[in-house]
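Proteins fold reproducibly. Next comes an illustrative record:
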Amino acid sequence: MRPAGLVAAACRIVTASRSCNNGAMWKPPFPSKALLLFLTAVLALPTGCRRTEHRSAHDDPQSSGYTVDWVGELRAVHLEGDARPRIHLRQIEPRDGTFAIGPLAGLRGEITVTDGEAYIARADDTGEHIERDFDYDAPFLVFGQVGAWQALPVPDAVRDVAGLEQWLSGAAAAKGLREDEAFPFKIETSTSTVEYHIISNSQPGDQVTRPHRELMRFFTIDAEPATILGVYSKAHGGVFTHHGQATHLHVVSDDERQSGHVDELYLGSDSVAYLPVP
């Protein structure tokens, strides 16, 4: 098993419920001394649940029809070059309704999880490559769960990222969402142009020293069916959105051959937005 897989297993053991349905105390499947030795070895690995600082964008996530959580921060990666792994993808317990956005550890690609399906995008001189695998780590990740979506058409006047952010603020309030809390959303379209990049660091290690712009490989989806996944927040600049922006956007083409971090988009007239049901 890869180290990341061991870590995920350790995290599941550590966070497992301590009681059974009948009230009996939960017991590990092997002696406690062996468990301690196993966890000691695993926690010495370069990534682990002990470094996970799980925070929520909601005062009471349990009362909402969706959650937005995050581990790590964008600013540590962009300002300090710290791209060490802080969470393994399996730790988010993917299932129907799960979403996640972030880069791969070491800035070696992009992570997009939509409706419980993972799309790992990497790029090199031969082009981009998509994997459907959760066995990866991230230096920061915004993620959560949506119980149900509500659809609304995107007005023709909304065409680019700036216009989308402005429109989302009012649209969310009209659909019962709180503007002062982060919320996920997605847009389905087949006539839009989406400009995106895949971060592609080839340096060894997880401390990134090259300017991020030099690590980006740029691609375009032009009038092809695709889903844009995003998280909206005016309060998390430098955490999971860039300063001065209210959204963090990724895209996945319907044919699953293209995916990455959205830089700009030009929305077509058929675009439909989906907001979470509160």
Remarks:
- Residues 1-55 have pLDDT under 50 and may be disordered.
- The helical segments are 3-15, 32-42, 74-80, 161-174, 212-215.
